[in-house]
Write a structure and sequence with these properties.
Blueprint lengths: L1 E14 L17 E3 L7 H12 L7 E5 L3 E4 L5 E8 L6 E13 L1 H11 L11 E4 L2 E3 L2 H13 L6 H4 L2 E11 L7 H7 L1 H12 L9 H8 L2 E2 L5 E6 L2 E6 L3 H14 L20 H31 L6 H13 L1 H22 L3 H10 L1 H22 L6 H23 L2
Parallel strand pairs: 9-12
Antiparallel strand pairs: 1-6, 1-9, 2-3, 3-5, 4-7, 5-6, 7-8, 10-11, 11-12
Helix pairs in contact: 2-6, 6-7, 9-11, 9-12, 9-13, 9-14, 11-13, 13-14
Amino acid sequence: MYADRCLVALGVSWSSMTSNSGDKNEPSDSKRLVPISKVESLGPQYRLVLESVVGELGKDYHRFVFDGTVVINYRGVASSQILVTISPSSDVKVAWLMVDIGSGDHVDQLIALSHSLSGTRWNDSCHYGATLDGHPQHSIRDMLLRVVSELEGIEYAKLEEEIKIIHDFKIFEFRGVHPGLDGVEGFVSSSSNSLELYGLLTGDEGWRDVPISRAANVIESRWSSREFVQVMAYGRCVVMLNTKSALYKKRAKDFFSTYFAGDSGYFQAEYDLAGLDHGVLFSCESVLHRFVEADRIVSDIAEAQHRRSKSPKRKSFPESRLFLRELATGKLQSARLRMRDYLARVRDSEVVEVDDMLRLIVDRSGLRRAEEAVGELAESMDQDIDRVGSFGLARLAVLGALVGIVLAVANVILLIGHI
């Protein structure tokens, strides 16, 4: 699949295990973060998309360029840089490796990048690889975790013990795929292209040998607002075909110039970051943020249950009752309230801010199922905490409540772990 230009975004999101920890919102090594508004080549592009397309979605973040030297040794790479997004209302952060690969047919190369984001190490004897500030990196994941280590002020060797909530995401954007007379829709549906798109979305290096029916099933759900754009999502990957023409740009410019003071420049801009056009990047950031929030809530509840399991096995009934009451009004209650607030914000965003594209990404990434499971856990917790909060409970009710909460937490952890 030849394209005039291929843009890639490879990201990881994370949070410390302690939520809303105040000073954690400010990175330890913030001197290496340059506000994106001060970067001449990127600041205006972000502003155009935020004001023209995204609306409120994506505004609840601070965005920076990581001040480091990034070199990606892949064929055709024209430029690469690392961006960092931080939510001021929580300690959820996202680091994106942005790569401009230029023109060509890069499917296998992009699938290799997907593997590298998952942590697969490069062959030391081959010419592929990457460096950060001159230091060789074993994989893209290794590079991004080095950035996380610096920003959090945590020794790299201890990073995944301290930062346990890490999700990854990929965006591949293709410009100028020359779809021919059938347009982008026909281009996507053709047998050879559908196999390549399947390989990109799934990271499957064996895409050439996959049944067409399997590929068609993966790419069947798509979003489009114009005949020249197609957005596909599967798992934690989004592929966008974006063949905006000069004629389309002229029509938009003529319309706004005729009836208004002129267009904002949004339709004319050639964006240099994968997914920035049409707000795809901001939608993926939102999904990553929500994955971390859901995981963090479940982790806090699991931690509370672990504390309970470590307590002496034989407690008198009054002592057990008081312990549960303290638990319900402490860590567990805090997690429950935060979960309720989180689910309320998700519902609000679905009504006000989120369009069909984001709903597609939410559904195809598995986030919808994870959030539904968290909602079920919230209901279970409400029922169980109400039961154990009363001093008139019988021992059987206490044990039943504990079993109910433990099973609910286990089910959610298993579900999220398989997404």
